[in-house]
Amino acid sequence: MEEYTEQITLDEGDVDYRGLMKPSALLRCAEHVATAHAASLGMDKAFYAARHLVYLVGRQAFRFERVPAMRETLTLTTCPEQARRGASKRVLTVRDAAGAEIARVDTRWTLVDTDSFCIVRHVPEEIDSRWNPEVPCELSQQVPRAEALTPAGVRAAGYSICDTNRHINNAAYLDVACDALPLDVLEQGPVRFAAVKYHRQVPMGQPVELFCGPARGEGGAGWYVTGRREGKAAFELFCAF
């Protein structure tokens, strides 16, 4: 299998008030090793810019078998699959110091033409041929909705949550969603599973209206969070504790 591995040690910026890894930190790891893997093969940001292409995350799901704590050293392995129906799957496996798998992230990337802003349905051979024909493991990408929604405030796409594309970073939506949930819900324990659909980018400085409500899906009972920009869904998320 074509794969790429790095090791990290969790520090204060990666954990929540419990001292446990935040969901957003896990998704940042998935994004980082995917980018590092491509760059190690010569497909860095300049490579894609020269071809007027960019990879964006369309859907994503993760599951913690055990949530690691601050100062733990983790081994991150990313494994990419060739494109299918306009999306390329990448699976991140996280192992602890004993070699046990403690987390997994299933990300679906879409290649976009930066001139037309259209999805590239036929990924160029020079890119797609580098990835595996099949990566068998995957997580449910379904996002069950709540029957009733409660307004949860407005969040601006501020400096702290935007990336070099000048919009809210995919991983940061987990922080936005957790901030929108009632505190007594968060006190149930760390988020163990989440599935996210990214519908529309939220550019820097733009507001996103947040709504949440209880829902039932992967792993049983959980919570649904959605953010709307200009009346249309920017993202939808389901999480379970």
Automatic annotation (TrEMBL):
GO terms for biological process: fatty acid biosynthetic process. SUPFAM superfamilies: Thioesterase/thiol ester dehydrase-isomerase. This is Acyl-ACP thioesterase. Residues 162-218 form the Acyl-ACP thioesterase-like C-terminal domain. Residues 3-127 form the Acyl-ACP thioesterase N-terminal hotdog domain. GO terms for molecular function: thiolester hydrolase activity. Signal peptide: none annotated. It comes from Candidatus Faecalibacterium faecipullorum. The lineage of its organism: Bacteria, Bacillati, Bacillota, Clostridia, Eubacteriales.
